[in-house]
Amino acid sequence: MSTCKPQSSISRSKVTTEMVDSPNLGAGRATKRRPGSTMGGLPVAESRPQLVGGRVAGERCVSCDYPVPQVGLPWCPSCYGRLEPASFSPAGTVWSSTVVAMAVNNRRPPFGLAYVDLDDGPRVLVHLRRPKVLPARSRVVIIGMDSGDLLAELDEGSEP
After folding, report:
1. How confident is the model at residue 4 (pLDDT cuts 50, 70, 90)?
2. Using CA atoms, how far apart are residues 85 and 74, in angstroms rounded to an integer?
3. In 3D, which of 104, 108, 146, 117 has the Cα closest to residue 129?
4. Which DSSP state fits 107?
5. 157: exposed, middle or buried (C-beta count within 10 Å: 0-12, 13-18, 19+)?
6. How far apart are CA 72 and CA 91, in angstroms?
7. Could you tell me the pTM of the whole model?
8. What is the mean pLDDT of the chain?
9. Rounded CA separation 50/30 (Å)
10. pLDDT at 7 over 90
11. How far apart are CA 54 and CA 72, in angstroms?
12. For residues 10 and 119, what is the distance between their CA atoms, to the nearest angstrom?
């Protein structure tokens, strides 16, 4: 009968130091992205989509055509293929929406949020110009940025 004994010869600080100093930490672990080279990781992409020249900036996989609404990812999150720069239409269809009734950071209630499937690209989270729950399949258009987040409004010229 074998019993496992904790190895008390390695102190907690030594383990931490070895992890920080190890150049191979994270090698072969393609699903882990850690900020900075000190921890063996990769630069972390900006998580919020950006509007550049009236279009949503992003990337698209050259292997599987998967659209990504961020710039700076090291590989495709679907197939780990190579990404190339892309831009996506600011128009899309509401997948889901809600009105938030509590303060979040600098946002004061009420404010609206919606997940929008862009016409030629990915699904993105947007803030709504007016705090209103929009029915699924409503058409919206991204009109700008608000405190670093995409800002959209109902496309009055279309019906769900």
Report:
1. very low
2. 12
3. 146
4. B
5. exposed
6. 23
7. 0.72
8. 80
9. 25
10. no
11. 19
12. 55
Q: How far apart are CA 29 and CA 18, in angstroms?
A: 18
Site of tokens 């074998």: 2
Assign residue 63 a region: left if phi > 0, alpha if psi is -120 to 50, beta otherwise? alpha
Torsion angles phi and psi, residue 72, rounded to 5: 105, 10
User: For residue 135, is pLDDT > 70?
Assistant: yes
Burial class of residue 76, CB neighbours in 10 A (0-12, 13-18, 19+): buried
* 69-103 tens-digit pLDDT: 998 888 899 999 999 999 999 999 999 999 999 99
CA 150/CA 88 separation, integer angstroms: 13
**Which token pair is 41?**
């990781």
Residue with tokens 């499937």: 117
Which of 107, 90, 62 lies closest to 155, judged by CA?
Answer: 90
Q: Which residue is it, tokens 């609206």?
A: 112
Enumerate the β-bridge partners of residue 153: 141
What mean pLDDT do residues 39-46 have?
A: 62
